[in-house]
Design brief:
Strand order of the largest sheet: 1-13-19-18-15-16
Low-confidence stretches: 1-9, 24-42, 47-52, 300-310
Number of domains: 3
Order of helices and strands: HEEEEEEHEEEHEEEEEEHEEEEH
Distance between the termini: 17 Å
CATH superfamily of the largest domain: Cupredoxins -  blue copper proteins
Largest sheet: 6 strands, mixed
Radius of gyration: 32 Å
Oligomer: single chain
Number of helices: 5
Shape: elongated
CATH class of the largest domain: Mainly Beta
């Protein structure tokens, strides 16, 4: 009887082994296959060209009686000529005074006298009056030396700065090139392609144009992380994007074969992850990477749902499980797997 029990335990061990293979190898195989596919489907740019910034930019800043410039952040490119229309529709006088140092943030706890002393020592690059109910134009040449700076502008009327009447002029270096990619979303929770190759970029900043379409019917987004070399997860991306605005978030169009588009400016090399922010899509594997100025390698293997496991892996796992079940059933019925040879008893004795 001990021999029979040993044989049955061997068959049961086969079943346990098959189940372990299915339970352990199957979830690991899915992201590995996913990573291999990412390495094989690198998206290539459709267009590469030198992009020149518009030589002249017009913007309007308004005030309406509340202590705020609207907008309070201006974005320009070095080398542009800027015309700012100052529209004061309120009943109070203001000034529009811009600091010449793009690396300083003026303390809000300064007194009006301290603020005046600062600009007396560091002459502003713009200093314009904004009388009540008036419109004034000021011109500024944003030269190359200003690239990378954030130049604060304030009102010098006593206590208006302290109350919130300030803002910033953000100056970026001129874009050296522009690349265009086409990305489609599928109803199997995939970006096609899920890796975009801009590894040839050597000069920054670079403009990346993304045209986002669909080959299915589900809603999706193309949402690009602003941080290079940072891996999102399905448990943190909502909080992350609440703290770090995406470089772009493009909704998929409702009609297959059409595209919505967005443009971002990348200022540093690295890989940038893009995901779909529709609930559950990222968790099911809807993510990809934009590689800018670095080799196109898969930076990490994400943990994905087994709901998206490739069919070949499911079939293989099912076959292994079936073999284990057959062995266990055979052992239960016959007590031995395989059956005894001619001349042997059921315990294998001649």
């Amino acid at each position: 009887m001990s021999r029979r029990r040993t044989l049955r335990r061997g068959a049961v061990a086969s079943l346990i082994t098959a189940v372990l293979i299915l339970a352990v190898v199957l979830p690991l195989a899915a992201p590995i296959a996913r990573a291999e596919r990412a390495g094989q489907e690198m998206g290539r740019p459709h267009v590469a060209s030198v992009s020149a910034a518009a030589p002249h930019v017009n913007v309007t800043i308004t005030t309406n009686g509340t202590p705020a410039f609207v907008p309070d952040v201006l974005h320009v490119t070095a080398g542009q000529n800027l015309t700012i229309t100052l529209n004061n529709s309120g009943a109070y006088n203001h000034t529009f005074t811009m600091a010449s140092n793009g690396t300083e943030v003026l303390p809000l706890n300064w007194s009006p006298a301290q603020l005046d002393d600062y600009f007396a020592t560091n002459p502003p690059i713009v200093n314009a009056s904004m009388p009540a109910n008036s419109v004034t134009d000021v011109n500024l040449t944003v030269n190359a030396s200003m690239a990378g700076g954030d130049f604060e502008f304030v009102s010098l009327i006593p206590y208006q700065f302290q109350a919130g009447l300030y803002g910033f002029l953000d100056v970026t270096p001129p874009v050296s090139s522009s690349l265009t990619f086409y990305v489609n979303a599928s109803d199997t929770y995939r970006f096609l392609p899920d890796a975009l190759n801009a590894s040839s970029v050597t000069k920054f900043p670079v403009a990346i144009n993304v045209f986002f379409g669909t080959v299915g019917v589900l809603s999706h987004t193309f949402t690009l992380s602003p941080l290079p070399n940072y891996n999102l997860s399905s448990s943190n991306y909502t909080t992350f994007f609440g703290q770090h605005a995406p470089l772009v978030s493009i909704p998929v169009p409702t009609t297959a074969g059409t595209y919505n588009n967005g443009t971002v400016v990348i200022t540093a090399p690295g890989y940038y992850e893009y995901i779909c922010t529709i609930t559950g899509h990222f968790a099911n594997g809807m993510f990809g990477f934009l590689y800018v100025g670095i080799p196109t390698v898969v930076p990490y293997v994400a943990v994905v749902s087994t709901a998206i496991v490739q069919s070949e892996i499911l079939i293989g796992g099912g076959v292994l499980l079936a073999i284990g079940l057959v062995l266990a059933l055979a052992a239960t019925v016959t007590g031995r797997v395989p059956p005894p040879k001619p001349g042997q008893d059921k315990f294998g004795h001649y």
